[in-house]
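Support request from a user on the community tier.

User writes: "When I paste my structure tokens into the form, the page sometimes reloads and wipes my input. The last time it worked, I copied everything first. Here is what I submitted, just in case something in the input itself triggers the reload:"
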């Protein structure tokens, strides 16, 4: 039968026992602290990353489809490795996107390729990323807005016009407080007229668009890059509910244009991904990574729990005579067991609280460091992370403290008093 006075007494005895070995108590909690801190950090990071990815994809909207280059007959890992080794895919062309735009459900498109060149204005000399794109990009990415001036037109792209739109950080570094509109800059020794400056967008999928210079695709291909292909592009849809149907139509058209047998995906030199599919893939990846790291944190908690069990068992041995004396004076087995069990639970509970606090500090530092780099992860400790952390710490205290507590309760008073 539950007796509140006995519970209070057991807790008081447990606290008194812990106070007599403060250093041991502190050292015993280290494994639990690390494990709980890791759990809190992983949960915060996983949710922050997932939220960040969703926000980034919302920029493009659910009514967009991406078409990008792909090395035939390779996995994603093999493709990255091959492209780092110098492999190129030059079969994706602007004309592919112009053909795709003729499909019934396709509204607008843009095709793009990246480059990096020396950019000069008067005595200012910087290395900048050039985003060579078509005029349809602002229509597909509503987040791309003009702070001043305008974006270039299809007519300027077709005419190979030497015009440029600057990201705000590029404008600041080249011009400072000076007005940039109408001024000429040199990109790779070619004169470009500045016609616009974009609003700040920050980091989008690890690209800092504030540090980019937008130029017409044909202009960059002919005057800067000396190529005819593109790396990727997006199309927007008139009816977002027909995404799968449109993806199938685009796939069939690309297979025809690139001379690939219908349905022979291994030969595809292109990849088509809807934003809905991309979000599902990223959600799966994020969930898998979170589970993996939580597994590591679980191992840390188990190691910490085993350490607590060993320390509590050692404590029982050290206090065997004390246990025997208390039993001889009439202390029931339940009180002895409760005392040592509460000691384990108090140790892990304190470890859980410190671990949560440590996790919160580390998460805050990570969030601050990420924001300084332009990444808005918006990390924070949620209530369920706190409850999971505390629940896990108390659970491990109960599980790993039970055996030593039972061992203490089962000691014979006569044998315990004879213990040396």
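"...and here is what came back when it finally went through:"
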């Amino acid at each position: 039968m539950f007796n509140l006075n006995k519970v209070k007494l057991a807790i008081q005895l447990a606290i008194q026992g812990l106070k007599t070995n403060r250093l041991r108590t502190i050292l015993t909690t280290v494994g639990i602290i690390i494990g709980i801190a890791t759990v809190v950090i992983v949960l915060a990071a996983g949710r922050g990353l997932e939220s960040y990815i969703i926000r980034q994809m919302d920029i493009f909207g659910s009514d967009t489809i991406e078409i990008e280059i792909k090395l035939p007959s390779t996995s994603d890992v093999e493709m990255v490795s091959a492209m780092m080794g110098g492999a190129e895919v030059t079969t994706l062309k602007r004309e592919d996107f112009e053909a795709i735009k003729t499909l019934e459900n396709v509204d607008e498109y843009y095709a793009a390729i990246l480059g990096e060149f020396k950019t000069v204005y008067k005595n200012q000399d910087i290395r900048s990323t050039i985003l060579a794109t078509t005029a349809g990009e602002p229509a597909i990415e509503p987040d791309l807005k003009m702070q001043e001036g305008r974006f270039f037109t299809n007519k300027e792209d077709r005419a190979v016009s030497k015009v440029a739109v600057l990201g705000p950080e590029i404008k600041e570094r080249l011009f400072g407080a000076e007005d940039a509109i109408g001024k000429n800059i040199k990109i790779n020794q070619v004169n470009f007229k500045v016609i616009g400056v974009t609003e700040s967008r920050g980091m989008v999928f690890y690209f800092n668009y504030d540090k980019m210079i937008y130029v017409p695709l044909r202009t960059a291909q002919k005057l800067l890059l000396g190529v005819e292909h593109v790396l990727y592009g997006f199309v927007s849809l008139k009816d977002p509910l027909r995404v799968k149907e449109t993806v199938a139509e685009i796939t069939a058209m690309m297979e025809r244009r690139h001379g690939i047998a219908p349905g022979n995906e291994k030969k595809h030199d292109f990849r088509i991904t809807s934003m809905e599919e991309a979000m599902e893939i990223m959600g799966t990846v994020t969930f898998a990574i979170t589970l993996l790291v939580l597994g590591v944190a679980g191992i840390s908690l188990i190691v910490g729990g085993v350490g607590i069990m060993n320390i509590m068992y050692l404590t029982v041995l050290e206090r065997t005579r004390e246990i025997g004396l208390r039993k001889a004076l009439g202390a029931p087995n339940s009180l002895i067991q409760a005392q040592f069990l509460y000691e384990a639970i108090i140790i892990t509970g304190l470890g859980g609280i410190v671990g949560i606090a440590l996790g919160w500090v580390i998460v805050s530092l990570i969030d601050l460091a990420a924001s300084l780099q332009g990444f808005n992860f918006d990390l924070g400790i949620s209530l369920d992370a706190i409850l999971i952390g505390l629940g896990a710490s108390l659970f491990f205290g109960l599980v790993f403290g039970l055996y030593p507590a039972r061992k203490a309760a089962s000691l014979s008073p006569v044998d315990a008093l004879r213990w040396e």
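Agent notes: The reload is a front-end session timeout and is unrelated to the input. DSSP finds 14 helices and twelve strands in the chain. The longest strand covers residues 106-121. Escalated to web team.
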